[in-house]
Amino acid sequence: MRNLDVTTLRSFVAVADMGGVTKAAGFLHLTQSAVSMQLKRLEELIGVALLDRTGRGIALTPAGEQMLGYARRMVTLNDEIMRRLSHDEFEGSVTLGVPHDIVYPTIPRVMQQFAAAFPRVKVNLCSSYTLELKQLFDKGEIDLILTTETNTPDGAEGLCTLPLVWIGAPGGASWRRRPFPFASARQCLFRQRAIAALDRVGIEWDSALETESDRTVEATIAADLGVGEMLLGTEPRHLEVIEHGGALPELGEQHINMYGAEQAKGDVIAHLAELIRKSFLSMHAPVESPPRLGVVG
């Protein structure tokens, strides 16, 4: 009878979630060589390759995809047993505020990981604009918020910096039209920056719509009736970054900040904040080369 080791399974799940051994090792507070050896032992025990190392990054083999589901369940069950029997079960709720445009793709994965660690703590997700989130946070109505800002103010923790880019319909031609059909919600923090950039280079523009709804803006852009602005990597799959070759002005960069992650707020919020940090790190760090698994040093 062969037995699986939960520590090894936890490393496998971390590599799959973080996209590589380097980031998984940091998440697990282990060395890269230790994680690589654990993966090697797991593959030897199962008798099949779980990771495809032929490309630039790390991908799961069909067997690895099947194994990932089992591994998640075993790790979750292990953690639940330890919490329940050690009487270390947290209860309650935490409110997380996130701007509309950076909810995807990071936050759903964070909430899933947090729910596995604290199954009896409810996460109330508040999605709004940065200015409103900061007001609610200052009133004490939200425990932890993310923001998109032009800098990282005192009291904020900078998570990453992303370029602001022009977004259009796949293969669309709206960006070539004049007047330029600009599509943006009235309360969008990036709206004035985009308008100023167009004015600066003398591009005549017109509002493609008047709305407060981000969904309406996305639908307009997807229909190739307008062009919008989004942070690189946050654009939905039905839209794409416009490769304009310098025909449109650059929009600069935006800082993703976090407020409320002070350790004094307790283990629950501290854990949520740490998941957010590492999720943004894994999303926006450069893709690493495939590790030489099983080679120590």
How would you characterize this protein structure?
It is a single chain. The chain is built from nine helices and eleven strands. The protein is of the alpha/beta class and 297 residues long. Helix 1 (6-18) crosses helix 2 (21-28), helix 1 packs across helix 3 (32-46) and helix 1 (6-18) packs across helix 4 (62-85).
> What is the CA–CA distance across the termini?
32 Å
- Taking all Cα atoms into account, the compactness measure Rg is 22 Å
Structural class: alpha/beta
Overall 3D shape: globular
Q: How many helical stretches? A: 9
Topology pattern, helix = H, strand = E: HHHEEHEHEHEEEHEHEEEH
Nearest-integer average pLDDT: 88
Estimate percent helicity: 25-40%
Strand content: 15-25%
Low-confidence stretches: 285-297
Q: Sheet with the most strands?
A: 7 strands, mixed
Task: Write down how many β-strands occur, each being a DSSP E stretch of 2 or more residues.
Answer: 11
List the helices and strands and how they pair.
Blueprint: H1 6-18, H2 21-28, H3 32-46, E1 51-52, E2 59-60, H4 62-85, E3 92-99, H5 106-117, E4 121-128, H6 130-138, E5 144-149, E6 157-168, E7 180-182, H7 191-200, E8 205-207, H8 214-222, E9 228-231, E10 240-241, E11 253-259, H9 267-284
Q: Characteristics of this structure?
A:
single chain, 297 residues, alpha/beta, seven-stranded mixed β-sheet, two-stranded antiparallel sheet, 9 helices, 40% helix, globular, disordered C terminus
